[in-house]
Every structure is written in C-alpha cells, then in structure tokens.
Amino acid sequence: MDAKILHCADLHFDDEPGRLESTIQCCNKITETAQDNIPNLIAIAGDIYERGLILGSPGSLAAIDFVCRCGDIAPVVIVSGTPTHDTTNSTEVFKRLRTKHPIYSTGIPRQVYLTKKESLRFIELNGDVDKMDEASLLLSCLPSATKASLMAAGTHSMATGAIEYAELLRDLLQAWGVLNEEANNRGIPTMLVGHGTVKGSRLSTGQRATDPDAEFGVADLKLTKAALICLGHVHMPQQVHVNAFYSGSITRTNYGETEDKGFYIHTISGPNVTSRFIETPARTMKTIVPVEGIPDVSLLDGVNPGDYVKIVYSIRQEDASNVDDAALRRLAYEKGATEVKIDKTVLPITNTRSEGISRLKSLTEKLKRWGELNGQPITESLLAKLEMLQTLDEHIILEGCHLQEACDETRLFAA
Q: 345: left (phi > 0), else alpha (psi -120 to 50), else beta?
C-alpha cells in the first residue's frame, strides 16, 4: 500500500502586511501543488503562527483559510510548534473546521491512524493493535515536546518525576516503534510528524543546531520504526537521515536565510521513500555590506522590486556625516524595495595617551612631544598659533586677521 504525503512546516503566519503577503503567496503554491497531485495526507509540522495572534486578525484568518483549503483537498494532520509561536491551544481551532476531508491537530504527543474507508477519519490508537485492520496510514504525532507534555502522553516511565526529558522521549518513541513495526509488517504506511531539533541539523547560517532543553538524535528517531519522518522547526530544508526530512520554512523569515524555500512531496512505498522538493515564491531578503570605503548609492544596483533590503556597514565617527542614510533608503524604495533597514555602527574616535606628556611643563613642549609620538609634524606656524593663544587676549585675536588665514594645520591643532 503506497501513500503520497505533502509535507510543509514553519508557515509563521503574522499580521505584518509584507510578511503575510509572502506567506499567502507561498501557501497558494502549496495548495495548487496539492490540487495537482492529490496526496493521501497533508502534514503540517508546526509553527503555523509567528506569535500569538488575536482570532480574527489578518494573520489568523489567513491561516484558517489555508488549512481549510488543504482540508478540502486531502486529510490534514497538524502538530503544534514552539510555544512562543503556536501558543497553547492555538491550533485547536483547525479541528473544528468543516472541510471535505478530516483535520487532526494536537499539542500533545499522540499516535493516530487514518481510516481507509469513506468517510475518512482520524482515530487515536491508544496502543490497540486490533484497530490497525481499518488503518490506511499510521501517524505518530510529536508536537514541540516538553517534559510535562511527555508525561501527559502516558509513557512507561511516569512513576519517577525526576526522569529527564530525553529518557521520557525515548520511552515514548520506543512504544510507538512497537506499533509501527506491527503496521509495517501488515503493509500499512507509517510516518512521524514532529517539531523539534535534531542534533547536528544545519541552520541557515551554516551552523549546527543545538537545543539542550528539547532535542533528539537520529538514533532516537529510529526507535519509532516509522517509514517516513516529517519534521519542522529548523528553517533550512534538509534530509537529516535516509527517511527523515526538514521541509524548512515556506518563506524567508529573516535576513540570514538565503537558501531556497519550499516543501516536500514524499511517496511511501513499503520500506522505501522517494521525495521531491518543490520551491515556493519566497520573498527575497538581501543583506548588503560594502566591501570597502564609504557607502554610496552604487550599493543598491542589485535591488529589485519586492526585495527586502538590509544595509550593514561600519564607519568612523569623523566620516559618519558623509553618508546620507535617508538618500540610500529613499533610492531603495524608488527601486521597488518592500522594506529597507540600515544597520550602522559608528566607530568612535579613540584618543591615545602619549607617554611622558604630563611631566612636561609648557604647552609648547607637550605639543612637540605629542607630534613625535604620533608621527605628526609640528611646524613653526602651528607653534606660533599656540603662542598667540597663550599670550593674546581673545578679543585681539578675533579682531585680527589671524582667523582668515587658510591653514591645513587647523585640524591637527584641534586634535
């Protein structure tokens, strides 16, 4: 018995207009692809929301509309993502949508199966092997897990409250593995839909992901004996094991994400899985860093309509006034940029203490010494001006012609 699975994750619906528009465009690509391929299941592996949204807000309505459209194409399973994104019970609303096909969402680890007779339904297995005869697909649902949620799932090690998260998780995965192995032997496709960090998975920055509070390894995933593992949470799409995949986020959520974005269509055929990655029209987020010199408008030559642009540069304090940030921002918008950010670091002027100067008696001696230590020529003209400042009344200096003389040493004297 084969099964075709559309796997997406990290939708991050939000009320911010530009971000929401990009998310909707990418979700349209998902539903169009699903309509053309008609999968047996659409799996959404967490982080539907960017944050807790008020029901009825633009982001929440768009999320509901997307899930509703998916449910009219195929059965849908949703696991809750990170609590800061999918807040408590925020995905429960999807189970209450009236769609052509059933929708199952959960914030607690559960093992469910999809019936094979019309009308299709999701039924929680609860360890009952006898129910498998009516299953067309066995699903192990692992939302973003905490110790409390694992204990609520009823693993074998509940007697000891001090048991670590990792041990609780392994108990649960191993229990699921017993039932998945039985299903595999009966020719029923098995899969895990989960949200969390796999040790060693790659981030968009190229670094390896770590999450000591809630991470698991490939060896842990193998305990499930699932034929396919569909994951969410890491935004970089990747294959972490022969049958385990992160679909990544469907659009770019920050300026560090330059990789292609999209989702997977997997086909389970016995113990084998074939997978196809499909790109979405994700928004372009460009980070522009000047190679050298003072930033100018030439930095924006590669900006295209719809781009999100961040200009990052460092500049010395004395040169800061030579950069017109407002002009850079204005030109980027004229080129069609959707958003322009400027991340500027001003390097302050640093004064170096000159050894021995404080022990000299006169200002003339101190100035000469400063010039020696800093490699600056101290001319007779500059010394004459110092003498003038020390001996003449300020009114005489102002009334005279001294200030009309152009002299390149003025800056040096000010220093």
A: beta
Q: Are residues 255 and 149 in the same domain?
A: yes
Distance separating alpha carbons of residues 405 and 414, to the nearest angstrom: 16
| The pair of three-digit structure tokens given for residue 188, joined into one six-digit string | 């029923």
Distance, in Å, from the CA atom of 61 to the CA atom of 15, rounded to the nearest integer, reads: 10
Looking from the CA of 180 toward its CB, the CA atoms found within 13 Å total: 26
Q: Specify whether 310 is located in the same domain as 246.
A: no
Q: Is residue 352 part of a domain?
A: no
Q: Distance of CA 209 to CAs 244, 276, 311, 393, 408, Å?
A: 16, 24, 27, 69, 56
Domain closes at, from 250, 279, 308: 279
Q: Which residue type does 1 have?
A: M
In order, the DSSP letters of 226-280 are -SEEEEES-SS-EEEETTEEE---SS--STT--S--EEEEEEEETTEEEEEEEE-
Selection from 188, 162, 192 nearest residue 176 by Cα: 192
Tokens 């003449």 correspond to 392
- pTM of the predicted protein model: 0.78
Q: Does one domain contain both 54 and 112? A: yes
- Are 203 and 332 members of one domain? no
The residues facing 5 across adjacent strands are 41, 266
| CATH number for position 195 | 3.60.21.10
In this prediction, residues 290-310 reach a mean pLDDT of: 86
Bridge partners of residue 239, in order along the sequence: 245
What integer pLDDT is reported at residue 69 of this predicted model? 97
For tokens 């944050």, what's the residue?
51
Q: Give the N- to C-terminal CA distance of the chain in Å, as an integer.
A: 82
* Structure tokens, 109: 């680890």
The two tokens of residue 120 are: 């299709």
Residue 7 belongs to a domain: yes
Q: Exposed, middle or buried, 98 (CB in 10 Å: 0-12/13-18/19+)?
A: exposed
Mean pLDDT of 70-85: 94
On whether both 217 and 343 belong to a single domain, the answer is: no
Within a 10 A sphere around the Cβ of 128, how many other Cβ atoms? 11
- Residue 338 structural domain: 285-347
- pLDDT tens readout for residues 328-359: 999 999 999 999 999 988 888 765 566 667 77
